[in-house]
From TrEMBL:
Residues 129-156 form a coiled coil. Keywords: Coiled coil, Membrane, Transmembrane, Transmembrane helix. It comes from Natrarchaeobius halalkaliphilus. This is DUF4239 domain-containing protein. It comes from the Archaea.
Length: 341
């Protein structure tokens, strides 16, 4: 799964938490796994050069290889079985009687019609990326209508606040729409773009403008602000729905990845136990005992399923933490400012 595209600009990375978080979320899971395993391999090989007891001596006197690698076999089998079982429990939510499935279908269709009525679209796109694009575009249009309504407003402070609000919303929406244009569900692109649209803060700002200037706003202006808020409110459940689908998609990918890598890892463990002892591969390569190279590679194979599990769950957990609150609540300090009270 190719999810390492990095064509987003720095503003998106800054709003979502900086380069570190961008790396944790956007880097291809297999590339991330390879980087972690490579680091472990380098550390193991380098450790053999700092004057500790030679590995060959440990293997000869304590039979360390069999003790180490036999433990991996049980851990790999047990861990893979548990993850696949958890995955099946999650996917069991998709199973149900026809009445339940019909209710889900009707609820989904009703929500789609609500979005279409709010953004004045006859038929909304079925693809998640295109659906989010149209919803964000609808927010932009409602904001533009609000700004147009304020052109003849006598309250200069109100007019400036609305203009600033619309400008910030437009910049964010334009950035999100650009990232959604070529996004494909199943990659992280759609969720990344949804995370980059800070609708919670926009709802708060719109409500603040309405409350602070309730005496100055005309009935039409109030209606326009309500329309902006109503459209923004649809973004929350939309994002949560696509996030749930993505989590299920990602858990399936995790299960497949573990199944792919577990058999080679078990085979490598069997080879290390059955055919490698203190007399294997005598000599050195690049100044390092050949047994160190072989054992380090074997250890990396052994922990590969665990690392794959970590890098997948890391992204799922990170996204879940950053989307705990749906609606006008802001949990992250990066989206808070002094004027929040």
């Amino acid at each position: 799964m190719n999810d390492s595209d990095s064509n987003e600009d720095s503003s998106g990375r800054d709003r979502l938490g900086g380069a570190r978080l961008w790396m944790l979320l956007r880097v291809n899971r297999w590339a991330f796994t390879g980087a972690v395993l490579s680091l472990v391999f380098v550390i193991l090989v380098a450790t053999s050069q700092i004057g500790l007891t030679p590995l060959r001596e440990i293997v000869e006197n304590q039979d360390g290889l069999e003790f180490l690698f036999s433990a991996f076999i049980g851990a790999i089998i047990t861990g893979t079985s548990i993850v696949v079982t958890i995955n099946q429990l999650v996917l069991s939510q998709e199973l149900g009687a026809i009445g339940d499935q019909r209710d889900r279908m009707q609820t989904s269709m009703q929500f789609q019609r609500d979005v279409e009525d709010t953004i004045d679209e006859d038929t909304s796109p079925p693809e998640p990326a295109a659906f989010l694009y149209e919803l964000v575009d609808g927010v932009q249009e409602r904001a533009a209508e609000l700004e147009a309504e304020m052109e003849d407003e006598r309250d200069e402070d109100l007019r400036e606040k609305v203009a600033q609000y619309v400008a910030e919303l437009d910049d964010n929406a334009t950035e999100v729409k650009a990232s959604l244009e070529n996004a494909q569900f199943g990659t992280f692109d759609v969720i990344w773009s949804a995370l980059n649209f800070n609708y919670s803060r926009k709802i708060y700002d719109a409500r603040t403008i309405r409350d602070d200037h309730s005496d100055s706003l005309s009935e039409d202006a109030n209606e326009k602000i309500d329309h902006v808020i109503d459209t923004l409110q649809l973004f929350g459940p939309t994002r949560e729905h696509f996030k749930t689908l993505y989590f299920q998609w990602e858990l399936i990918a995790l299960s497949r990845a573990l199944l792919y890598i577990s058999v080679p890892a078990l085979t490598a463990m069997a080879i290390m136990i059955m055919y490698v002892d203190a007399s294997a591969l005598p000599g050195t390569t690049l100044g390092v005992d050949n047994l160190v190279w072989l054992t380090s590679a074997g250890f990396v194979f052994g922990i590969a399923p665990f690392v794959v599990f970590i890098v997948y769950i890391l992204r799922i957990a990170t996204v879940a933490k950053r989307t705990l609150a749906m609606g006008p609540f802001i949990l992250r300090e990066s989206e808070r400012e002094e004027d929040l009270g």
